[in-house]
Write a structure and sequence with these properties.
CATH superfamily: Ribokinase
Structural class: alpha/beta
Oligomer: single chain
Helix content: 25-40%
Shape: globular
Order of helices and strands: HEHEEEHEHEHEHHEEEHHH
CATH class: Alpha Beta
Number of domains: 1
Strand order of the largest sheet: 5-6-7-8-9-10
């Protein structure tokens, strides 16, 4: 098959979420381990390009970076992803990284570095740092991280798969009852999503967009949600804000470069009948 174009772009759930939060006006830093190969150098430089602090990244020599190849289908607005997880050793938190978690207003995790994520979440809980969990994969040990989560944002697939419930609303309530977060927000792709705060279940819409590239839209949603919480919005407003950011992102190719700034989001929401 012949492609019309190709490009290199940074990815990863929390990594892309941090870029989104930074572009929306919040200060961010990435805690992780990267290789010194071409992929690792690109990822570090990409963070720096968008203003994400890289002081807490440990660079290891001689390893192979996590990399993916994605095919985007223009006719159906769908994607196919083939990934290589590389061979980097697991992240082990050092003193500077632990202190950064203590000092942060929010810790965002995705479960890819499960052991380090659980340790960081424990530190966060002990020091008043809010924990936002991008629940995308049903990884081993996920229950430990869920139990330490304040803001739980699973996909519909994760929520139903983990709880065994038949619909998103039941799954959200089951997750809330079992793990006692502040809120559960279930993302439902083209159908928007819903939130449950222990009292009521509220749906939020997907906002209109000419979809060019949906890859990373969920990651951007989580980063936008984190930014919105830090800005002081209530959870329902956070959902609308994040849905709008994600929609705008889909109008351009690349998970990061198409993320809008805060003023563009405010204008877009107003044009679509929602005022922050």
């Amino acid at each position: 098959m012949r492609a019309t174009a190709s490009k290199t772009a940074g990815g990863g759930p929390v990594a892309t979420g941090l870029v989104a939060a930074q572009k929306l006006g919040e200060d961010t830093a990435y805690i992780g381990v990267l290789s010194d190969d071409n992929g690792g150098r690109f990822l570090k430089e990409d963070f720096e390009k968008y203003g994400v602090n890289t002081d807490l990244i440990e660079v290891k020599k001689g390893y192979r970076s996590f990399a993916s190849v994605l095919w985007l289908c223009a006719d159906t607005a769908t994607r196919t992803c083939v990934f290589d997880k590389g061979d980097l050793p697991p992240l082990t938190l050092n003193d500077a990284q632990k202190q950064a978690v203590k000092d942060a207003e929010m810790l965002m995790v995705d479960g890819n570095e499960m052991s380090a994520a659980v340790e960081a979440a424990k530190i966060a809980k002990e020091n008043g740092t809010t924990v936002l969990y991008d629940c995308g994969g049903l990884y081993d040990g996920v229950e430990k991280l869920l139990a330490l989560t304040d803001i739980m944002i699973p996909s519909e697939e994760f929520a139903m798969g983990h709880t065994g419930c038949n619909n998103a609303e039941e799954a959200a309530k089951a997750l809330f009852e079992k793990y006692s977060p502040k809120v559960v927000v279930v993302t439902q792709g083209k159908r928007g999503g819903l939130l449950f705060d222990g009292k009521q279940c509220i749906s939020y819409p997907i906002y209109p967009a000419e979809v060019v590239d949906s890859n990373g839209s969920g990651d951007v949603f989580h980063g936008a949600f984190a930014a919105a919480v830090v800005k002081g919005y209530d959870f329902e407003k956070c959902c609308h804000f994040s849905s709008a950011v994600s929609a705008i992102k889909c109008t351009g190719v690349g998970a990061r470069e198409s993320v809008p700034n805060f003023e563009i989001v405010k204008k877009y929401l107003k044009e679509n009948g929602y005022v922050l």
